[in-house]
Design goal:
mainly alpha, globular, 13 helices, about 325 residues
Length: about 325
């Protein structure tokens, strides 16, 4: 009997392992495609990239240095081999503006600011969205439900481009409660205003999505059965409704986090945070192609990694995907 139980548990875990393996394989293939696309970008741009970066009046010495930095003085196989070598040694090449500085070091200094901002924004969004949506589903047609609806509409309607400067004017310029663009961005207090700027929109989106999912599932037969068996509405929500309602929110939250890890360009610029978005904008301003290439590569790989994590989380939350019938 114990042996039979272990065999059944093994069969139950096998579809989960197979699904995760398929998702991981797909992510690796997509990453290889991203690497090739990033490498080919400068070759796909119409015209001469050196002319586009330096202009027609550039001196021959500057043109030769830029061609060497971009690898345009090499054949495609040689340039591809150099690109692969920069990936394997972890440098991602050297900045065309400062040949002594590696692209990986620049990204390594910028990425923690973007990651901490994304983590703070999604934490705030989840802390607001989940209780609001649950209270709305627990007391439909109440003032909690009305408050959740109003917050969802206003949060989606207010653009971050306007909300960020407004928060700066109130909490930094007028009241001096939190740091601003001129202060140290590495402190925890410096995260509050940019995290609110991004998190309010995300919280509104997740509140609306989770609230709609909860209301759709409330009318299902299993909810009526749970309440008929003696469970209160709040108990039925916690035990039977929350997990399936979270599934679409997990997907949306993952997409939002992936977008933030790709660089919250406007918010980072408004609050003076030296993250990936700021690094990319500065590199575009001086046309430092190696830094642009490395930043785009890290953003794309971060997006793929988050999507893989969302797929795995989705599989762990949804028991239907762990059943033997879901196996390939």
């Amino acid at each position: 009997m114990p042996q039979a139980s272990r065999s059944f548990a093994t069969l139950q875990r096998r579809p989960l392992a197979n699904r995760i393996a398929r998702r991981a394989t797909g992510a690796v293939v997509a990453m290889c495609g991203v690497l090739l696309l990033v490498f080919a970008l400068k070759h796909l741009v119409p015209g001469d990239p050196v002319d586009a970066m330096l202009g027609d009046q550039a001196q021959a010495v500057d043109r030769a240095a830029m061609q060497h930095c971009l690898g345009l003085d090499q054949s495609v196989p040689q340039a591809l081999a150099a690109f692969a070598a920069s990936l394997f040694n972890g440098t991602l090449g050297h900045s065309c503006r400062d040949p002594q500085t590696t692209v990986a070091s620049l990204i390594g200094r910028a990425f923690p600011f973007t990651f901490s901002l994304a983590l703070a924004a999604v934490s705030f969004a989840l802390a607001v969205a989940v209780p609001l949506a649950l209270l709305s589903a627990w007391r439909p047609q109440s003032w909690w439900d009305a408050a959740a609806s109003v917050f969802a509409v206003l949060g989606l309607a207010v653009p971050s481009l306007w909300l960020g400067p407004l928060l700066l004017r109130w909490f930094y310029v007028q009241w001096h409660w939190f740091p601003g663009p001129a202060d140290d961005p590495s402190t925890a207090a410096a995260l509050v205003l940019p995290a609110l700027t991004l998190g309010i929109h995300m919280a509104a989106l997740l509140t609306r999505l989770l609230r709609a999912s909860l209301f759709d599932l409330t009318n299902e037969d299993f909810m009526r059965t749970a309440i008929a068996k003696g469970l209160s509405r709040s108990q039925a929500l916690r035990r039977h409704l929350l997990r399936p309602a979270l599934l679409p929110m997990i997907t949306m939250a993952g997409m939002q986090v992936a977008g933030l890890l790709g660089g919250a360009i406007v918010t980072e610029r408004v609050f003076g945070r030296p993250g990936l978005g700021t690094l990319l904008l500065d590199a575009l301003a001086v046309r430092d192609w190696k830094v642009i290439e490395g930043a785009v590569l890290v953003m794309a790989l971060s997006y793929l990694a988050i999507n893989l994590l969302v797929d795995v989380t989705y599989t762990l939350v949804d028991p239907r995907l762990r059943s033997p019938a879901a196996a390939p």
